[in-house]
Predict the 3D structure of the following.
Amino acid sequence: MVYLLAGLALFFGAHIYSALRTRAPERRIEARIGAGPFKGLYTLVAIAGLVLIVWGYGAMRPAAIIWQPPVWTVHLNILIQLIAMPILIAANLPPGYIKKTLKHPMLVAVKVWAIGHLLANGELNSILLFGSFLAYAVFDRIMVKKRGETGLPAEVRVSVMSDVIAVLIGLIIWGAMIFGLHEILFGQPVIAGLG
């Protein structure tokens, strides 16, 4: 559990710093140490956090069962991830209607992804992992709203093609996860006996 908690602290510590840091350019750490070194340090901390999260999550198996989810929540999670994947992809593409409508699609995707996994997993390590991502996404959305970052400007041009690409890539990733990729990456099949 120590590795998982340390990884969560490192990963989210860096992200919470980003959410809370001053927006005045002259007062930022980047201005003092330079943008390149800051980005490099930030990336190293985030990657170290991710490595510890993955290692710590796996090291906690088998984890204590906090609650036993009904079987139907596993199937519900599969459908929920069908929604999360295209939103996640849309967050990283040029503006489309998905990105413009959701304003902060990365945070929406993380919340949807985390809620689905919390519904389907009742082990302590899962609750710590997915609960942390959900809590951070909610916190960051509040901070974004406080800063007045309301998403894309009203006049921004959007492309339906970005949405089509997001849905197609999202469906491909979703299907790959179901048919074996999830087990390869995370050691657990989406559906037992499939993949």
Notes: The mean pLDDT is 91. Residues 145 and 156 are 19 Å apart (CA to CA).
